[in-house]
Sequence to fold (174 residues):
Amino acid sequence: MWRQRQLASYVVNSKWDDIPKDARYEAVRSIFNWVGCCLGGARHVTTDRAIAALAEFSGNAEASVLGRSERLDIMHAALLNGITSHVLDYDDTHLETIIHPAGPVASAILALGERQNVSGEDFMHAFILGVEVECRIGKAVYPSHYERGFHITGTAGVFGGAAAAGKLLGLNEQ
Fold:
């Protein structure tokens, strides 16, 4: 339990200046890749079907689906950006765990960040922390988790997305 608390404390207390320059550089590369994957998958039949199935259930149009004109509530926009970022399977991969880290994290915080109007620095900081959480959890359960048939991006990624979103939500409390 102390490791979980230590990781949570790191996320809560981390400052942008704590992030090494190499990590910042790799985060920018990862976001560029994620955006490209989203744009590439934006017109895929899977995306068309997902929007057709979900749009009527969306609340206020607060967030973008990259590469499309539709705007959805933040939950549905995050889901759709997650779908578009992975549908072609060219997204980034953390080779130690086979996680595609950017998809769940960037998708969650783009939608939330759009609603909250966060700065680029705050977005990147939350992204880096979310990917760190996701990959650390992935390392804790890999390979047995993966060998049991779980898609580790979906199971560990949700924790990375939640950590990153929590970081952005915590900005209001600082």
Q: What stands out?
A: The two ends are 26 Å apart (CA to CA). The chain has one domain: 22-173. The mean pLDDT is 95. The beta strands are 63-64, 71-72.
